[in-house]
Amino acid sequence: MEKKKCILLWDLLFGAVFALVCAVLWHYSLQLRNWALITGIVIFAAAFVAGIVQLIMHIKNQTVKSVVTFITVVLLLITGVIAAQIGVLDYKTEHIVVDETGNKYVLHSGYSIFDYDCWFYEYKNFIVCSNEICDSVSYKGYNPFEPLNEDDEIVIASNSNKTYRLS
């Protein structure tokens, strides 16, 4: 198979560059915003599946091709179910909020086992934010602030007494 047409090779290169970008950002106390991170992961996963299909299509022996296809489908289903569970359990909503002084923050919020947690990161730009938590709050049980609308204010009482609003 020619290198320029091997989807899997290009996907692995993309994955390595994507991981390197994430590591460099982390080194400088930055992280990708949720939309950029999810987009990169989805592109990698879709190209990986396409690359595996491309490799299977190049198998000449029909019996081997059938066995490899069956094993690949089973592994992809298992991996997909596990990835979906992790994604659902670990998904964090993201909002841009502003404090009383006009500083922008990225709010990540999500459920843990019994609590609803909110973390505030310093806003850098539309692709990255700080990876250091500036403020946080945890609510027991139901969260009255999700989904946020334009009139909601979030009062933080855990680490500070700041008030945040949607920007």
Brief synopsis:
With 167 residues, this protein is α+β, with helices and mostly antiparallel strands. It has helices at 7-27, 34-57, 62-90, and strands at residues 30-32, 93-98, 104-111, 115-123, 128-140, 153-155, 163-166. 44% of the residues lie in helices and 28% in strands.
Topology:
Blueprint: H1 7-27, E1 30-32, H2 34-57, H3 62-90, E2 93-98, E3 104-111, E4 115-123, E5 128-140, E6 153-155, E7 163-166
Antiparallel strand pairs: 1-5, 2-3, 2-7, 3-4, 4-5, 6-7
Describe this structure in words.
This protein is an alpha+beta fold and 167 residues long. The protein is 44% helix and 28% strand. The protein contains 3 helices and 7 strands; from the N terminus they run H-E-H-H-E-E-E-E-E-E. It has helices at residues 7-27, 34-57, 62-90; strands spanning 30-32, 93-98, 104-111, 115-123, 128-140, 153-155, 163-166. It has a 7-stranded antiparallel beta sheet. Strand 6 (153-155) and strand 7 form a beta hairpin. Helix 1 (7-27) runs antiparallel to helix 2 and helix 2 (34-57) packs antiparallel against helix 3. The relative contact order is 0.12. The mean pLDDT is 82.
